Amino acid sequence: MPAISVRELSKDYGSKLALDRVTFDVEEGTFFGCFGPNGAGKSTLLRILTGQIQPTSGEAKVLGLDCATQGLEIKRAIGIVPEVESPPSYLTAWEFLYFTGKVRKVDDLEGRIDRWLDFFDLQEAKGTLCRDLSKGMRQKVMLASAFIHEPKLLFLDEAFINLDPIYQKRLREYLLQLRSEGRTIFLCSHILEIAQRLCQEVIVLDKGRLVARESMTDLVRKGESLEQLFLRLVEGGNAHSP
Amino acid sequence: MLTVLRLMLREEYRMHVAYSSPRVFFSMPAYVFFIALFFASTLPLMEDSIPIADILLFTNAGIFVYGLSVGAFGFLGKTYLERRYGRNNFLVAMPFLMPFTFRNAYASMYLRDVIFYVVLILVPGLAGVLMSTLVADYRLASVVVAFVAVLLSFLLGISFSFFASVLYLRSKTAFVAIMLAFVAAVVAYGALSLFPLQYLLPSWGFQANLRPLGDDVGAASIYLVVSLLATAIMASMAVLTVREAPLGRTAKVRESYPRYHEAFRSARSLQALLAKEFSDMARSGGVSKILLAYIVPLLLLSFTTWYVNNGLAIPVGFNTVFYAAMVGSFGIMLYSWIANQDAVDYLETLPVSVPQVIKAKLSAFFLLTLVISTLFVVGIALVNDETRLLWLALPVLYITSAFMVLATAYLTGLSPNSVLFNPSVMTRFMIISLLPDLGITILSFSLDSNPVFAVAGIALVCFALLTSAFFFYRGLEVKYAHAGFQ
Predict the structure, then answer these.
(1) What integer pLDDT is reported at residue B310 of this predicted model?
(2) Bridge partners (DSSP) listed for residue A201
(3) By residue range, what is the domain housing residue A145?
(4) Is pLDDT above 60 for B88?
(5) Contacts of B485 in chain A (CB under 8 A)
(6) Strand spans (E) along B117-165
(7) What integer is the mean pLDDT of B296-324?
(8) Neighbouring C-alpha atoms within 13 Å toward the C-beta of A89
(9) Is B351 in contact with A87 (Cβ distance < 8 A)?
(10) Domain CATH for A77
(11) pTM of the model
């Protein structure tokens, strides 16, 4: 059974068609990348898959659960890093992780919180209200909150944004470790260099339509980079080096 | 500054349209127009029982309070500037990026609110009253005078509120001092009659000295100038004292969430969410805001009933049961505060549903109000020597509270402020909330003359409210089953 299964999925916001009959599967244990220009429908797709919004038509299943009707069950099983880093204003970083852990009924909660605060070097800031943290720190808190229950499927929307190179590297290594453990990761990003190093399979969306599906192995065999593929598809072959 | 003001007006319009739609937004002034037209047209029929002076007085006082509430956005302070409410970014925070000052932004915000609400509410109201002159015998000059007085009352309210907002952000002590001075002035006028109302609300002096209430143009002119001066001084002081770049403070706090979590162990599936509500209240200063939102209407209610009985010398039988029904209906404002404590978009990442979050907020509401409301109603019973009515008043209080807050939650979900801007929701809400209150109020007045009839009637209304409250509660799950947090 694929970890994610999408069939003829469409979503419109009134007159604007955000997703247009998208179909693809993601096998378990795959590091899967979803790319496209701004407004291509990536975040809409991610929000449907994580049960945040309802599709207009078509079907989407995550871990065998129907995204349209079993959103809560899906959220229990997965971890989500949203596009905008927005932890609650009046909890500290430590308290937000505690809150997350309690909502998710996580064992050995305080030990796990300590581990993630250490991982992201947040111990100094653990007593600061999230609203007073910098963007980067908020992003780290959201990442820790998505990882704390060690889900077998992760959805990451621009997870590397706001992180400095040290933490980008640290996060990259952790995600590769998860990949080697057989966990599934669904990544939306504009940072194609990082995605190239991580992803095994990719799709490219443009104006709501799926315009390409490639495995990274095939791409490398063709001598094409992810950036070249992206520009070729989205710019209609007009990409050129400076 | 004109460019910023123009953009802020556009932004305010777009924000309101985002709550509903352009059609619904523009139905708001139409709604005000028709209400004004209806009341102004039917006013002459009621003039024998309610004098025009009292109607004008209540209109000015009401608009002054409206001005206070419009200007109160500044109390959101840092939260407002950071735009932590959802994913919106607003122009008032642009001085962080653009070459204009916070002072400039704040002045533009003040002018924006004045223009926006005058055009949205006061001008359509004036148009409705003007239209009523076709059927009612009003002099055009009197309508213009009444409009100018109401406009001045609004300006005084909004300017005072803006000024108080800046004080609140700069110095809590100064804020408390000015609020105490304000309350003292209200008590000195209302309870002790130390000076006339026009000293407190000069716009009323303008109205009271011109026809149809008076004929002293000189005195009216003085009150006009005083009102304008007071407005200008308060607005200028607000703009001049607003802090530049107010986001510099980052404080460490002691962990308290686990204690709240432990305290609400019996809340089971709502435990984590309910604990967060109380933690937020403590951290955001929400408790004082919430108490203020509750206590101010209680004081206004007490003052109004006192004024009707003593000031107007109308022998209306306000009793403890009446107060209980009224206090129950104040729950709307409190729920609104609780629902707006913090943005909820981060909850999209967690396995919680919108109905669960609404229920946690409702639980917080009941835990907060149970004590305050009970104390108020018991206090009123003791003051009026009506403890014999408590057996009826307390159930009325709890049932109307439950009904009102569940109706609000059902109709508006997690966005009570924004959704109540939608006229169709507001109309349904007013019908739902006013009818039962009216029923209990009328029945409570006959408790002394016909107790069996009154008690039976109140019991019937309460049963209907309780049944409706139950269905509203059940309906939350259905209505918001697939709702998102953004």
Answers:
(1) 65
(2) A32, A215
(3) 4-234
(4) no
(5) 52
(6) none
(7) 72
(8) 23
(9) no
(10) 3.40.50.300
(11) 0.77
